User: Fold this.
Amino acid sequence: MNEPKIIPLPPVPEEPPSAPHRITPSPMIKTMLPQTEMGSPVAVAPVTPSAVRMFLQAKSSGRMADGAFASLMVVCALSIFAIVILIVSVLVSHSQLSIKAFGWHFFSTRTWDPVSGDFGALPFIYGTVLSSLLAVLMAVPLALATSIFLLDICPKFLQAPISFLTELLAAIPSVVYGLWGVFVLVPIIRDQAGPVLEKYLGWTGLFVEPNFGVNMFAASVILAIMIFPVISSISRDVMRAVPVHQREAVLALGATRWEMLRIGVLRNARMGIIGSVILGLGRALGETIAVTMVIGNHAAIMKNLFAPGYTLASVIANEFSEATGDLYLSALIEIGLALFLVTIIVNAIARLLVWAVVRDNAGSAH
Amino acid sequence: MDALPLRSRGVSNFVTVRRNLTNHVVTGVAIISTILVLVPLVAIFGYLLYKGASSLNLAFFTHVPVPVGEPGGGMANAIAGSGVILGLASLLGIPVGIGAGVYLAEYARGTWLGAAVRFTADVLNGVPSIVMGLAAYALIVARQQHFSGMAGSVALAIMMIPTVTRTTEEMLATVPKSVREAALGLGIPKWRTVLSVSLRTASPGIITGCMLAFARVAGETAPLLFTAFGNQFWSFDLNQPIAALPLQIYVYALSPYDEWHRLAWAGALVLIVLIMASVTLVRIFANRGVLKGGN
Assistant:
């Protein structure tokens, strides 16, 4: 943009784009300084204003434009606050009806009866918490083991393709996971995994037939696959942020690789790993479409994982556009508000943890 | 005298064996888990390619949906609708996101306000997409009394902002300070320095960040359910309900008809390919532009 106008300048503004991205400053200075001095507008400046300076002074009055630009950027930044406040206020105002009608009992009542206008969110809270916790339980060990494998065990040539593949999991849209879940995962859980789990773990009461495939268990498995990339990539970042001398010190004491990882890496990165797990949990709590497609959408509290369930997000997705009556809509929006507040809190905690670890380690590494 | 060293040697031998064993077990577990993780990944992609490719035909790209029972039909209107919604969302979300990123990197480094904005952006990033849909519904649809593509665009734009903000900030942070100082030293005003030097230098990374944000919202269904709502015919009117590819896949996947399932698979494949193609194209295009500007 504005290419011709910049051409009279010395090569400074033209130089940077050709420079590689994460380069350290020193080579830049070395290559740039001589050129600037050869053009030597700086040396001439005190005597007579250089052509460049005259050109620039003619071009812009500076202060006004600077102020306007800075305030425009501030407005953009403040709009992020505005968005959060706007979301909260609009959700609160639209759920007034339900808040007034049910109060806090809304979150402790089991009935969800649109016909008689009796609404309680407990089955959805139960479904959301249970499916997310199960997903985290399944995803965390796998994610940590994969991170360890990629960082320390994997041969170099496999590292890039495998981490690319796991990142690719994050790029698949939720609705495609749902589609795959409905046509591949659900039949597997119904026909293959179901009988096996029932035979060996049926005594726990968690896996009891009848099992139609669309149930809490399927939702948890889908969620586990979906949150895996989040947990694995962030925990890998956190583990990588542990200073190398920590590893080297433990290895120098004669530790095996596992001991080095346990003492030198995992212990130092534990807060960040917990943060990544909570971040994954936040993702699972709010995940909508894929869960809606496989969980069975039945508002009941059951211990049996083969029974259909319902979550906060999926009840909104499933019933909102067909909801009749202001109270019904208002109750669904209140569920949305609750979901919003819970995920905000969960994410805030996670971010603080990850932030603390990465910052501390970055500080001590330098 | 001899007993003690011998015993301790014995113990250490035993401990070493156990330690080595643990080490090998953990290594094995890590390898097995990685393989276990790659299985669903390969399964999803393989199945998607197989089902999608076998159900794809030309009609998919040229026809609008047909009523149940009639064979054929496609998702042409949904592809176009997705394009329109995403275009408007990018127009709304990307400038604001870049502006906020510039503020964080160039004006607010080390200030409490900057830290607060950064933190809020991170938290906003984790808000469930369905809640964005609800907010857009309450803000726009409830007021207008009808569903509209614009409401969907607003919901998606809000989702793009935090990602764009954070990547812009990170990319600007990699621009060496000396480059800025050189520009400022020549008497170039700060706004011009930011636009022509900092942003220009960081542009490949920023464009990549924008594309990531784009790819993330391109597959979103939940925020469109009760904003864009979807329809079955050609429409580009952003003030009316408008079809979108993810919505159409969702509706067709949950229908009881085999023909619609086939279309859903084809749609899923097309969705993923379109997302990846647009990301790759823009990156190639952006890199070429930068190289030209640099030489």
Summary: Chain B has two domains: 3-55, 62-294.
